[in-house]
Amino acid sequence: MTTRRPPRLPSAQYVGFRQYYVTLCAFERQAPLASPPSFELITKQLLHSARGQHFAVLAYCCMPDHMHLLVEGLKEEASLLSFISEFKQRTAFTYKRLSGASLWQDGFYDHVLRSDECASGVARYVLENPVRAGFVRYPLAWPYLGSERYALRELLESVR
Q1: If I label 149, which of 35, 48, 53, 74 is the partner at 20 to 30 A Cα–Cα?
Q2: CATH number of the domain enclosing 100
Q3: What is the number of alpha carbons within 13 Å of residue 113 lying toward its C-beta?
């Protein structure tokens, strides 16, 4: 089955002090993401790539076959396209070396948050994904989520 890459906005829309909601899908929608070794690899590289590319990771959640991120550019030159490219390349290389399998589907889905959109509401949406999928009854029971900047309980209670 071939899938087309998601369409992109002009490159300038992915640079600077912006917030982005991103979804990355596992290769052929296999389910390697929500396991302790994969999550450790993904999280470590996510935070490393974010620092190097001048991004803050406001919220993230690994589901079995996809990952949600809410990130924010911290400098004028912060490029979402460079950040996601580096993150996917590094995790894919390590995962392939360890398992022999591909990790990511081509491309990713993104939404540039507008100034009138509430980032804490999007963060809560990201963190509640396992509840909506029926894996757990409350978000903090899912071990494959986090935030570099906020306490998870704080994010979940900020938009009640």
Answers
A1: 35
A2: 3.30.70.1290
A3: 22
Within a domain: 149? yes
Q: Is residue 126 part of a domain?
A: yes
- One digit per residue, the tens of pLDDT, for the chain of length 160 reads 455 666 666 677 789 999 999 999 999 988 888 889 999 999 999 999 999 999 999 999 999 999 999 999 999 999 999 999 999 999 999 999 999 999 999 999 999 998 888 888 899 999 999 999 999 999 999 999 999 999 998 888 875 5
- When divided into structural domains, the chain yields a total of 1
